[in-house]
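Exercise: predict the fold of this chain.
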Amino acid sequence: MMVDSKNNVGGILMKPESVNKTESFYMAIILYKSSSDTLDYQPLYQESFVLIKANSLEAAKAKALNYGKNETVSYKNENGETITWSLQQVIDVNSVLDDEFDSCEDGVDLYTRHFRNYEAYQSFEPLLSNEQL
């Protein structure tokens, strides 16, 4: 991949690393799964985008895993069934695209991902089909 002096990597403008910063922001994508003691229960999955502050990518990954594990919760729903949300997997942890977002401007990109198969994306994204959860 070609890298020029203006932090252009393969046509994508990358944010330069700051040598004076001790901590940076990272975006963690964490997948949770619900379960129940009810026999006919259909699990629901939740994808969360969590902002993590850490001094390295490795530290951010460890914090994301810890965060996901600590989010496990059980409760009784309106039918008296026990519902448990637990960590399924930490999908990704990466530097935010622009961690200078403490300014007052609107529309700051924090995370971007790419995919090739729109039909596959559409099949699991309930907001695209107006599916009720």
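Check your answer against the key: Confidence is low (pLDDT under 50) at residues 1-10, 16-20.
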